[in-house]
Q: What sequence folds into this?
């Protein structure tokens, strides 16, 4: 099998360097790499050139249009039987392609996705954020996996799809965010076989501070309502949980002005996060940071969901007039 690795990038040359370096360490080499610069002001062309002798790598520069259209641009110039879609902030462990090959040889899949982990080299903040994004006690349970509240939807940080399936679906839509879930929904709606490859995981750096993390998950909450407007059947009860958590948290904090007993559910949840994250990461410090990251994960998503519901459902604004800001700059 021949693979095309598609990497959209915007102003992240250092991350691209780490990702390409990890690709040089693969024992499986039957793949090409296409790095597509999405109108960056800090390009990574010189970084890519360093790897031209050890990787089958190509560099392209285009005007900014968001990651979805940038992936489509790369796919149009690729030749792989399967397309591997990666985010620039990922690092690929040795054995990644062997894991993909083993899964495809054991059972057919038109599309697939893999989990993500935090590398030992990541900062404590990145590890705490990774916990918040993958834990069963946050929306990690909604995202899908072995412990899941919904079926598995591949995400664009680690997604694979057969070339003819990608082309039949028309690639990624022009949605400014949530475009990867939109693509996954269309995979299922067209009855293609999609599976989780648990051993085809990547190290995913995500955000480096809580402010950026809040913005990321807030946009994810907005995306869920935008997806609901396109696919009403895609909104499940589990997607309401962060909004319910956010609303409940506000109510409890207001009640705490009358009685401190109202803080007990909040403290109990924080204790669960502390114990679970500290056990998983073997670090009390990361466990403490994970409390803040988990609350931001849920309230950021929940507030975005509520804001988008108000604008898109109640006020009936369209996607672009409701959220005119370019979320990728």
A:
């Amino acid at each position: 099998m021949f693979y095309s690795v598609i990497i959209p990038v915007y102003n992240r040359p250092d991350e691209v360097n780490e990702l390409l370096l990890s690709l040089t360490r693969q024992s499986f080499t039957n793949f090409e790499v296409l790095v597509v610069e999405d109108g960056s002001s800090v390009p990574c062309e010189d970084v890519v050139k360093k790897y031209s002798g050890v990787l089958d790598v190509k560099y392209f520069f285009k005007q900014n249009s968001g990651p979805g259209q940038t992936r489509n641009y790369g796919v149009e110039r690729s030749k792989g039987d399967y397309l591997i879609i990666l985010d620039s902030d990922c690092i690929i462990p040795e054995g990644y392609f062997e894991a993909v090959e083993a899964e495809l040889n054991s059972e057919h899949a038109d599309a697939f996705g893999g989990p993500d982990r935090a590398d030992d080299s990541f900062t404590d903040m990145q590890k705490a954020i990774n916990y918040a994004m993958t834990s069963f006690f946050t929306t990690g349970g909604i995202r899908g996996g072995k412990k899941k509240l919904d079926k598995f939807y591949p995400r664009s940080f680690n997604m694979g799809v057969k070339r003819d399936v990608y082309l039949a679906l028309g690639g990624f839509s022009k949605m400014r965010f949530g475009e990867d879930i939109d693509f996954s929904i269309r995979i299922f709606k067209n009855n293609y076989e999609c599976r989780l490859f648990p051993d085809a995981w990547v190290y995913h750096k995500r955000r480096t501070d809580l402010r950026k993390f809040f913005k990321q998950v807030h946009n994810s909450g907005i995306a869920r309502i935008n997806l609901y407007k396109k696919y009403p059947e895609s909104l499940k009860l589990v997607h309401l949980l962060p909004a319910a958590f956010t609303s409940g948290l506000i109510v409890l904090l207001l009640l705490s002005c009358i009685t401190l007993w109202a803080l007990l559910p909040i403290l109990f949840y924080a204790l669960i996060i502390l114990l679970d994250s500290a056990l998983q990461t073997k670090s009390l410090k990361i466990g403490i940071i994970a409390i803040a990251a988990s609350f931001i994960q849920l309230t950021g998503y929940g507030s975005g969901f509520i804001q988008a519901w108000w604008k898109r459902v109640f006020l009936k604004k369209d996607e672009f007039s409701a959220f005119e800001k370019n979320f990728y700059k």
Remarks:
- The domain at 3-130+151-209 is CATH 3.90.550.10 (Spore Coat Polysaccharide Biosynthesis Protein SpsA; Chain A).
- Strands lie at 3-9, 31-38, 57-62, 82-86, 90-91, 111-113, 116-117, 158-162, 194-196, 202-204.
- The longest strand covers residues 31-38.
